[in-house]
Amino acid sequence: MWSEYSLEVVDAVARNGSFSAAAQELHRVPSAVSYTVRQLEEWLAVPLFERRHRDVELTPAGVWFLQEGRSVIKKMQITRQQCQQIANGWRGQLSIAVDNIVKPTRMRQMIVDFYRHFDDVELIVFQEVFNGVWDALADGRVELAIGATRSIPVGGRYAFRDMGMLSWDCVVASHHPLAKMAGPLSDDVFAQLAVAGQRGYVTLAAEADHVAAR
């Protein structure tokens, strides 16, 4: 049966490319690392690594195991934390991601209202930009996102409720090529516009009110 430790061993071997380097990182002897991997492979009935003369590399099954194993371990940790909270009489905590497009005054009022109804629940708020709220949901860092875009850039099934429509005003510098275009931009041109940021980009929908060239 595999555990958090065995997943840590597989991850170390995959990153270092050898059992000896992984053993050095984990402060274990190489034989212990090799034994852990071999026991795991026997339990799964598939090889996780392709053994070469000087190094090792994950097999397709190994890549899948490492990817899925991380999510399972994360779920196990959350379950353990929730069990401890229940045993201690706590209601737990709620983690939410809020896009920076939401006004701070609205957020402050939301937090006040939340604690008025759930004073024994810890509320953890992450401020995100652009698709960061979706990333936080996909990574399992939060259970709820506020201010997410309508298009879903990550995999998974999500339930959502509309907050309303948002109109964009796109403003360009006077020397920008768009500034030389007379009149409103066509939908074809407008659909190609995007706002770049530190965490990614968001494409401006053609349903916005207008684009101004200044």
How would you describe the overall organization of this protein?
By secondary structure, this protein is α/β, with parallel strands linked by helices. The protein folds into 3 domains: about 5-85, Orthogonal Bundle (Arc Repressor Mutant, subunit A), CATH 1.10.10.10; about 90-145, D-Maltodextrin-Binding Protein, domain 2 (3-Layer(aba) Sandwich), CATH 3.40.190; about 170-214, no CATH class. The chain contains 7 helices and 9 strands. The chain has helices spanning about 5-15, 20-25, 30-45, 60-85, 105-115, 130-140, 185-190, and strands at about 50, 55-60, 95-100, 120-130, 145, 170, 195, 200-205, 210-214. The strands form 4 sheets. It has a 3-stranded parallel β-sheet with strand order 4-3-5, with helices on both faces. It has a two-stranded antiparallel sheet with strand order 1-2. Helix 5 links the parallel strand 3 (about 95-100) and strand 4. Helix 1 (about 5-15) packs across helix 2 (about 20-25) and helix 1 (about 5-15) runs antiparallel to helix 4 (about 60-85). It is flat and about 70 Å long. It starts with a helix and ends with a strand. Residues about 195-214 have low confidence and may be disordered.
